[in-house]
Amino acid sequence: MENQTYQVITDRLVTMLESGTIPWRKPWAGASGFPKNLISKKEYSGINFWMLHSAPFGSPYWLTFKQAKELGGTVRKGEKGTPVIFTKTLPPKVVDVPTGNGGSEKMIDGKKLGGRMLKYYTAFNVEQCDGLTLPDDGPRHQHDPITSAEAIREGYPGPTIAHGGGRACYSPALDLVKMPEPERFEHREEYYSVLFHELAHSTGHKSRLARITETANFGSENYGKEELVAEMASAYLCGHAGIEQATLENSAAYLKGWIDAIKGDTKLAISAASAATKAANLILNK
Predict the structure, then answer these.
(1) Secondary structure string (H, E, C) spanning 1-48
(2) Which residues pair with residue 120 across a beta bridge?
(3) What span, in angstroms and rounded, lies between the C-alpha atoms of 274 and 69?
């Protein structure tokens, strides 16, 4: 009976994919999950983006030890920082060149026109600090737990779940799910949809279904396929909780984004369904 429900939801998702869906929308309010400096609000780029984005913190805000102190806060004792790389342009070398009349003038040495020096500093996430006043990253809404969805979460002896910050993610290394606070979601059904998505990722841990066997780069085909599995499983769990009507359209939009990024083939959703069924069944203890 459960698998029949999964098939009905799969068919509805594929129909939405083939007929066209609205763009995916982030269902919680707050700062973007992209890492940025707390003071300048400037987002990090290049290798720094990936170094900071992959760190196991929910907040996107980072700063140096000195900046934390300037803001009246402190970095907690024992916290390990993350290196941030930057390049500094060196000025060209200026030399004195004889003018022929006993004098000289300063000119740029054509053989030493300057260059770039690679340097780094250490950054800390605000979650590693105390005493900081953080930006208000959006409105809050009253959150009334959905009994059927809470029963699914409580019945799954999976990873630790921590709330806070503006990012939803799962860390296999820590076996930890990070979620924005429930009050950041305008609709409570979307909170559970995102939570189920991250819990579905946790089923791939080596201690469970061992589906996540390597670290896949963001945007890669392996990463995209895992996202399809997690979102399909989330849709199944929402169906089990009876809240899929409020979440299915956004799930279809999310799936379409990854399908287009991988191969543009809607059949990928069907191929992901098998792994998604196993993930959902594990969470439901079936």
Answers:
(1) CHHHHHHHHHHHHHHHHHHCCCCCCCCECCCCCCCEECCCCCECCHHH
(2) 85
(3) 51
Helix, strand, coil share (%) of the chain residues, nearest 5: 40, 20, 40
For 48, the token pair is: 């720094």
Residue pointed to by tokens 């020096």 = 117
Nearest by Cα to 9 from 24, 192, 17: 17
Tell me the per-residue pLDDT of 32-85, one tens digit each, with 9 for 90 and over: 668 899 999 999 988 888 888 777 777 889 999 999 999 999 999 999 999 998
Q: Give the separation between CA 87 and CA 52, rounded to whole angstroms.
A: 17
Q: By C-alpha distance, which of 140, 246, 235, 247 is closest to 186?
A: 140
- As beta bridge partners, residue 118 has 87
Torsion, CA 246, CA 266, CA 179, CA 24, rounded to 10: -60
Is-above-0.85 flag for pTM?
Answer: no
Pairwise CA distance, residues 68 & 113, whole Å: 37
The span from the CA of 222 to the CA of 213, in Å, is 10
Helix (H) or strand (E) holding 154: helix 147-154
Contacts of 223 (CB under 8 A, 6+ apart): 216, 217
